Every structure is written in C-alpha cells, then in structure tokens.
Amino acid sequence: MQNLSDINVIKSVMSRHGVTFNKGLGQNFLVDPEVCPAMAEAADLNKNTCAVGIGPGVGVLTAELAKRAGKVLSFEVDNRLLPVLNETLKEFDNVEIINQDVMKADLKGILQEKCKGMDIVVCANLPYYITSPIIMLLLESRLPLKSITVMVQKEAADRLCAEVGSRDGGAVTVAVNYYAESEKLFYVPKESFLPPPKVNSEVIKLTVRKEPPVKTDDEDFFFKVVKAAFSQRRKTAENSLSAGLGMPKSEIAEVLQKADLEKTVRAEKLTMEDFANLTEILKK
Ligand code: SAM
Is 64 in the pocket of ligand 1 (CB under 6 A)? Predict the structure, then answer.
C-alpha cells in the first residue's frame, strides 16, 4: 500500500491522473502520518461499524477507516479524484466512494440502504468552507449516527465545543449542544497539510445524544429564539430578541422578567435551560 501521507506519493498520484489542487473545494491534504490513524482510532470503529467519510481527497483517512470498519462510504464532490481513489484504495473491498455533494445528497436514504443493521459514525477531515453547515446538516437531519469525529478549523472547534453560557458560545454552540456532547481531541498545525492552509486545525468529537438536554415542544421555535438572541452579539438579549423576533422591546422585557433574567443579559450568558424557558414563555 502506498504511503498516502507522503508528499511525493500525493504529488505523483495526482499528476499521473492530471489532478491539481482545487482551493475552492478546500483541498488541503494531510501529510502528517500520525493524524489519520489517531482520528480513526478516536472514531471507535469495529467490523459492525459503517464509517462515513466526507471529502476523501486522495484517500489517506479513508484507508485508515477501511482497515478498522466493516464498511466505509465516502462522499467526494470532485469527480477528478475518482480515478485517484480507485488506484489508492484498490486493496480495500469495503470502501464505496459516492460522487455527490454531501450537502445535496439524500443522506438518510443512502445510509438506510447501505449501512443497514450497522452502527454509523462520521469521520472526516472537513472542507472548511462548509464546516458548520455540514455539521448542522448531519445533526439536524436526525441521521442514526453514534458520533461525528472531524477535523475543523481551530476557531470553529473553539465555537463548536464551547460551553453554552460562556464567552466563546454562539448559536451554533447551542445547536450542537442540543444534539450532541462535544469534546476537543487534538490540535493539528497548518504545516500538517499540503498545501498548508492559512489556519490551524483541531480534531473534535461529537457524541450524538439519545435525548436533548432540555425539553421543548417546538424545536423550530427554540432554534429561532436562539438565532434571534445571537443575531446582534454586542447587544443585550432584549435588543437582539426584539429585532430578531420582530417583537416590541417592552414585551421582550416582560418575557425576560418572567424567565428570571436581567434585562441587560447577553445571549452568551444564557444556558440551555434559559433558552428552553424563553421559548416556552414566548410561545404563550
Ligand atoms: N480527507 C482528505 C485528507 O485528509 O487528506 C482531504 C480533505 S480536504 C480538507 C476536503 C475534501 O472535501 C476534498 O477532497 C474536497 O474535494 C472535498 N469536498 C469539498 N466540498 C465537498 C462537498 N460539498 N461534498 C463532498 N466533498 C467535498
């Protein structure tokens, strides 16, 4: 098997197939030999696991997943990489590359058909231009996933794994926390990629919850409240909820009072319970 984290191997397989790096698709390939085995180990795979990859590149992480999982499905939008992957992954009979944009694919249908009866996990080095949309799509689609182990930009990791109610928190922090428990696993500097991107990275793991940590009768409205609260970060929750929900400030002030919150509170100080409370009071 070729060493797919060797710069010369990557360059030569790409040039043999006439493929050049496409910056717009976030094509920065890993060249640190220790990162992919560590990611695959963290994803906790066995022969009953269906590992879902996103953006296999030249297949360096895919190969590590294939060694450990029963099956690997990997979504790659760039069809120029298909002949490359055919060559680099030829020794594995448990890998299927799906030539589709992960954001447009029928993920539920594909996983139902191809991972029947298996535990399903996502393990990927994500294209950074759509990190949060991919993570939110995976979580909001309620796919039957056990966990999501992904490499993301360091700043995205800080936000995705922040504690709700802390300075680093944002609407995406609340959303991730609603669906999953998050943890940072390890840091990966930009020099670990070819070509090196402008930013550093971090591998994070989201373990999907069986039940959300707070109860709400109307999830859509809960997330509308969360988005509205964070819509104007520098302003008080009173101002941003009023603007985001199109309600007079006086009414929002009453709602905050009923929820036992100060008028001057900012969204980043609110807990999951505060958001659930606000949702219920606002609905009434
Ligand atoms: N996993 C490889 C590695 O670790 O070396 C490459 C990861 S690279 C950061 C991102 C990959 O995602 C590229 O292969 C790119 O073509 C692919 N990609 C970009 N946008 C995509 C999309 N919407 N759907 C599926 N794959 C996508």
Answer: no
